[in-house]
Amino acid sequence: MEALSYLKHFKEVAEHEIMHSGHVACPGCGAAIAMRLALKTLGRDTMLIIPACCWAVIDGPFPYSACSVPVYQTAFETASITAGAVRAGLDATGKKGINVVAWAGDGGTFDIGFGQLSACAERNDNIIYVCYDNEAYMNTGIQRSSATPWGAWTSTTPGSDYKKERKKNLLEIMAAHRIPYAASTTVAYPDDLVLKFRKAMSIEGFRLIHIFSPCPPGHKALEKNSILEARYAVESRVFPLYEVEDGTKYTLSMDPPTRPVADYLDLQGRFRHLNKKERSFIQQAVDEEWTRLMHRMRIDEAL
Amino acid sequence: MAQKPIIYKSWREMPLMTASMGDTTINKTGSWRNVEPHHVEQVPPCSFRCPAGNDVVSFVTLAAEGRLEDAWRVLAQTTPFPGTCGRVCPHPCETECNRAQFGEAINIHSIERYIGDLFRDNPPELKRPPYTGKHIAVIGSGPAGLSCAYQLKMMGNAVTVFEAHSKPGGMLRVGIPDYRLPPDVLDGEIRRIVDMGVEILTDHRVGVDVSFQKLMDKFDAVFVAVGFTNSRPLGAEGDDGDDVIPGIEVLRRINLGMKDGVGDKPLVVGGGNTAMDVARSLLRNGRDVSVIYRRTRHEMPAITEEIEELIEEGIEITFLATPVEVIRENGRMTGVKCIRMKLGEPDDSGRRRPVPIEGSEYIIKADCVVTAIGETTDLTFLPDEILAKTSWNIPADELGRTLFSKMYAGGDVADGAGTVTAAIGYGRRAAIAIDASLRGEAIPENAAVSPSLRDRTGYVVPFEEINLAYFEELPRLEPVPLEIEPRIKTYDEVRQGFSEEDLTREARRCFSCGTCPACDNCFIFCPDVAVIKVKDDPDKFYIVDTEYCKGCGLCAAECPRSCIVMKSVR
Ligand SMILES: Cc1cc2nc3c(=O)[nH]c(=O)nc-3n(C[C@H](O)[C@H](O)[C@H](O)COP(=O)(O)OP(=O)(O)OC[C@H]3O[C@@H](n4cnc5c(N)ncnc54)[C@H](O)[C@@H]3O)c2cc1C
Ligand SMILES: Cc1ncc(C[n+]2csc(CCOP(=O)(O)OP(=O)(O)O)c2C)c(N)n1
Ligand code: SF4
Ligand SMILES: [Mg+2]
Fold it and tell me: Residue A51 and residue A114: Cα distance in Å, rounded?
């Protein structure tokens, strides 16, 4: 039976596989889905630069790799600079048509690799920088990062010491560098993810893709709910999907049917300790951020 | 201190680098799992609820794909009457439809009707097994009898149908009026059964033109499907005049092209389909007709749409009143004395029993009473020893088997279900039982289920298991019925059918509960590349690679229509 085209929501996802089975991501890992979809789009002419993070482990123990493209494992804080250097090497040897992709976690991006990230962006190094964001240092046991959202439990923000600082707004910071392309996406919307990678590939210079990646053990969520969690993150406007071109041109990718933030929080044990007031504080913050984003989108029209 | 000089080396002099030699498929992560996904097909509520046993989801899904002949073939497995049922069935499938909770129920009957009509006059060929050498008699050519004959013929038997009336079809012919079921639709569907080689002997009343015993002696089996053909008497004083006429008799006359024999101002008594049909027919025949029913609208047994259309057409229903006496002057009826009722305790049917309000009698003007307060069987053709074992019906199990060998019964005469679809289902199940017993084989356990549904799990997919993220909330498409003004003057069909465009649009709203259309969600979301797409197998779209599946359950959670179940690993 021919598949019904109208039921095929995800028309853009290619059939061939570049990522292999047998990798060691936890069951239900959003980061694994993200890599699989990204590689399907990037194709074989791709080099991955992975710093210390879950993905450095997921890829498999030496001498095996889950990705049948060259993977360069680098120090925690050096994903962007290493990728920039790989590009310099390729350019020096005259090799063209290769996607140089830095693939780092939120810790490596928002925190320790942040200075280098900013430097590479400022130099407009010709790389695609991907941050798969599971909102904590998962690989080493769920320590807080500056990507961990307000209110979340982590092993370093336990009990009543839950995180009291807000999540850094990575896309805003990167947009402020006026890089040619910055976008947010997540695994619940494969077509969105694929199209953003395609667009990034068509642009030269520093491109950043921020992927929200549910992590069942780190978010204390059910393995089967990873896609649901990602979908709720978007629908509740906790994680808006949008693009910023040249640091100024904002485009909203999806104006989702609004869903209360509570639906999103309820899927995850890391928010279980929050009381009603704290939960409504999150809702309020999310609403404000959304309004701010909507205004920002219209600034160009006003200018 | 002198600085140590920096020595540059060539790449040949560099130590060996750690580089990957192979991929991770060496690592069988399948050992991690304790639950695993299984691709299955489950039962949608529509197919589950169809009394005829139609595989609703399959014909709707095929219609959505534009594969209309295949859709017709799905229907042809279980019913010879898609065009008929698409018009007159009260469609319990739609009541149960999961879409009803997100948008509105799929307009299943209009889809069935379209498919039935499309192939009515040139039906595709169906494969049939060789002649079995068995010959079965069917008494009654209503939907039960003809469904049984159709199935028996498809199984390779010879069948002769005995019908008392001059035309075949039972209540489809002599009960349901033309404005609901146009005669060319019924003729066409019966013609197909005749063309397959089923013999229908009209004007053959068993018990009059041929004896029941003779059929029992001459044929290998006899299926009795004589329906409910007698009208219940009114039970009011003076109800024995010829100005008190049974509704089914009036309908029979109209349907067979005779004079209706009804006065100018008839009062129709009853709240079922017969009452609605006879009242609306008489309106079309130019009579000043009204209806009286002893309970409220809520308790009316007629099909809801029927009641709505009757009211739309301007016929008045008096609720909570019943005739007690027919008033005549000089032998001519001038009115009917009625008494008002109120609802008391629930009766056996679960509906509240109407009780008369003493002293509330009043008179309704009428020159004729048409009774439609229920029908009963006429079993006088049966030999005494069999008749002795009958009551309001002929007792039979759900496969039509009676207390007597070779004798089967089904349709209204057995269960009194009172719907065409139930009669079709009954006839089919009896055919399966008759055929199996004549072949000396065991009766298949799931005889009631459409063959194309038999491989599914028995689980009926509830609404909660539909993943709404993959569907749009779209309204139901409904063909516009004929305008009131022209329609009440003719017998033109009131309800209209779909255009091909609307057919496809409506069919595409279907969730396809429990039915995998190969949407690829399981393939796309698997973090472990462990759902493999199968090519070139019409029955299987995916397999799970158990060497690597970690059992996360994302595929099952993201399956839009409950086609993946997680089972624990043995
Ligand atoms: C006015 C009316 C409207 C209806 N509307 C609907 C509707 O819209 N939707 C719906 O689902 N159902 C409707 N019904 C009910 C439905 O028609 C019946 O439930 C269905 O027809 C029963 O099928 P059957 O084959 O059991 O019997 P029937 O259709 O009653 O057929 C029995 C046949 O047996 C024949 N017969 C009887 N005795 C003998 C004999 N001794 N020898 C030979 N032949 C004999 C009769 O002439 C008749 O043709 C309606 C019924 C009536 C009366
Ligand atoms: C300089 C340095 N400090 C600490 C570590 C230990 N370490 C390895 S991975 C990791 C956390 C990575 O977190 P993140 O970047 O968010 O990726 P995740 O594991 O969550 O995918 C840490 C702290 C290290 N490898 N190098
Ligand atoms: S800890 Fe989280 S991010 Fe890391 S492999 Fe497991 S699920 Fe994926
Ligand atoms: Mg992290």
Answer: 13
- Please give the DSSP secondary-structure letter assigned to residue B328: E
Which residues on A lie below 8 Å from B32 (Cβ)?
27
Ligand 1 within 6 A of CB of B419: yes
Tokens 């619940």, residue located: A188
Q: Is residue B390 pLDDT above 60, yes or no?
A: yes
Average the pLDDT over each of B162-171, B346-355, B357-366, B412-421 and give the range with the smallest value. Answer: B346-355
Average pLDDT of the segment spanning B397-409? 97
- The DSSP bridge pattern shows strands B321-329 and B332-346 to be antiparallel
Ligand closest to CA A113: 2
Which pLDDT tens digit goes with each residue over A207-259?
Answer: 999 999 999 999 999 999 999 999 999 999 999 999 999 999 999 998 877 89
Q: Show the domains of chain B with their CATH numbers.
A: 17-41+516-568 (3.30.70.20), 50-124+470-503 (no CATH), 135-229+377-449 (3.50.50.60), 232-374 (3.50.50.60)
> Residue B484's Cα: distance from chain center in Å?
28
CB contact at 8 A, B547 and A21: yes
Residue A6 has pLDDT above 60, yes or no: no
Which candidate, A217, A242, A216, places its Cα nearest to that of A230? A216
CATH assignment of the domain containing A197: 3.40.50.970
B259-274 pLDDT, tens per residue?
Answer: 999 999 999 999 999 9
Are A267 and A225 in contact, with CB atoms under 8 Å apart? Answer: yes
Tell me how far apart the alpha carbons of residues B77 and B219 are, in angstroms, rounded to a whole number: 25
Q: Which residues of B touch A5 (CB under 8 A)?
A: none
A167–chain B Cβ distance below 8 A for any pair: no
**Whose CA is closest to atom 8 on ligand 3?**
A29
Pocket (CB within 6 angstroms of ligand 2): A 52-54, 76, 105-108, 134, 137-140, 145
Q: What is the arithmetic mean of pLDDT over A22-26?
A: 97
Question: Ligand 3 atom 2: the closest Cα is on which residue?
Answer: A215
Contacts of B558 in chain A (CB under 8 A): 227
**Cα(A42)–Cα(A199) distance, integer angstroms:** 11
Count how many domains chain A has. 1
Tell me the backbone φ, ψ of residue A50, rounded to 5 degrees: -120, 120
Cβ <8 Å between A27 and B470? no
Show the domain range for A238: 2-302
